[in-house]
Amino acid sequence: MKILPYQPDQSNLAYSVGMTLDRFIKFKQQDFPFASGELSQLLRDIALAAKIVNRETNRAGLANIGGAFGQTNVQGEEQQKLDVIANIRFMRALSKGGEVCAIVSEEEDSVIDLQNSSGKYVVAIDPLDGSSNIDVNISIGTIFSIYRRKTPVGSPIQEIDIMQPGNQQVAAGYVLYGSSTMLVYTTGCGVNGFTYENSLGEFFLSHPEMKAPKDGMIYSINEGLQLEWEPEIFSYIQSCKERKLQSRYIGSLVADFHRNLLKGGVYLYPSTLKNPSGKLRLLYEANALAMIIEQAGGKATDGNQRILDIQPHSLHQRTPLIIGSEKMVNEVISMKTNSSLTSKAFNH
């Protein structure tokens, strides 16, 4: 019997569909010898929940699951029906996966202790960012952070397991539900993006080794709040207009961030008179995106310090956020620094 080696099909009859997320995770598992497969499984659990939320989002109009749920979350924000559905889906996936001991969610008042003392990871998640845009068919997303617990496996979770700065993240990512659904994540070894193929039910690698342009032509900020900005932010936005940069603001954090990551730009949600500590949440919004942008060559700050170095002191702590292309973020920092130095000199 003659045995021939496998020859890949060279015809045009069957094109390559690329590498699946599952295969990519297995391929990269060697980067994390300490994880013994648990982190890989956790990423798969998140991907599974994202597929389900993608399905629910796509049929929201038909299934009457758009609109308000009739309750408010801990942030005082009106919950949408899909907020609740997404929260349930991710909670189930993470609890049944067996790798997580605790979850911090935007939709929950306190830490969810899964009573899984063998779980090695803590997940902080915004299950559905920008959900108020669902009814008008604008892109929304999921944001997640993954931390290794600090206390020994087998013991009850403690505050030190939860209140970790962003520089302790072992992985972070987001899912964008838009014209196509994408999952973008990093484990500290670069950033990779995967696009969901509905007919096959798989995420395929579509954006390998993503890099943020060092500079850009886009600035993203809610200009309706300009009367509440600090003078330095107002001056920076004026300089953007003078240079004829493009104003692009969707109002969904994931969508705005994703565009600027690909095309180059800066996203700003600064402190305001109404929200002097900022509005975005540190643990499950800012930290995740900060890790991603730094791995892609960009930068993230609250205007005074690196986002990833902020020590959290409360579960739903808020922070100002300036994030995006390195040169543009540095321009904002420089403007704030120079303003501070001028103010100190004047006072003396």
From TrEMBL:
EC top class named in words: hydrolase
Cofactor(s) required for function per UniProt: Mg(2+)
CDD domains the UniProt entry points to: FBPase
GO CC term (a single one): cytosol
Domain Fructose-1-6-bisphosphatase class 1 C-terminal: from-to ranges: 213-335
Family recorded in the similarity comment: Belongs to the FBPase class 1 family.
Name of the featured protein: Fructose-1,6-bisphosphatase class 1
Gene name of this polypeptide: fbp
